[in-house]
Amino acid sequence: MDLYRGTISKRDRRAFLPQPIPEESLRRILQAGRMTPSSKNAEPNRFIVVRSPEGKQALADLSPMARWLADAAVVIVIAQVNEHPFDAGRCAQNMMLAAWNDGIGSCPAHLPEERVRELLGIPPEVFINRVIGFGYLDPERSGPPPAVARKRKPLEELVHEERW
Asked: Residue limits of the Nitroreductase domain (predicted)?
């Protein structure tokens, strides 16, 4: 899939099949995160990969809005040794697009940071920035068809030339 197609076709989905992600694909996802540019080339991002059913369920139990994490093939937490939320967002998007290129869906989740820290043994000086579930999409439960789900404002409503 070319980069532009992948970017405009990516959707956040929360319904996954019970199918593991191949190691090669997981490595590409993590590599995409590692290679993301960072402010002053600080490389603040660290990755905690949660695959066990117990670990995923424990994360899912931290928020009623994140129950779907239990069904993900893998959950990756992006933590940072220096807090750079902008860099974490760039990293997350790169990882999700790399996954999508391999036919793997994803969605970020918001979880209480201190509870994630406690659950995963993250040191207090490390910042928790993103939690993302990855998995192969369940076509029966993954949302409306793209033509219906992707109603967007026209570009002309969003773009201003030179000034507002």
From this structure: 11-62, 68-136
What is the radius of gyration, based on Cα positions, of the chain?
17
- Domain spans of the chain, in order of start: 3-158
Measured in degrees and rounded to the nearest 5, phi and psi for residue 71 equal -90, -10
Residue 126, token pair as written in the block: 């490390």
Please determine, for residue 24, whether its predicted confidence score (pLDDT) is greater than 70.
yes
Q: How far apart are CA 59 and CA 62, in angstroms?
A: 5
CA distances from 118 to 20, 113, 123 (A): 26, 9, 9
Three-class secondary structure of residue 72 per DSSP? coil
Which residue in this structure is represented by tokens 């809005």? 65
pTM summary value = 0.91
Separation CA 47–CA 136 (nearest Å): 20
- Contact assessment for residue 33 and residue 45, using Cβ atoms and an 8 Å cutoff: yes
Strands (E), the chain: 45-50, 74-80, 105-109, 127-135
The reported pLDDT for the residue numbered 151 is 78
Q: Does domain 3-158 have CATH number 3.40.109.10?
A: yes
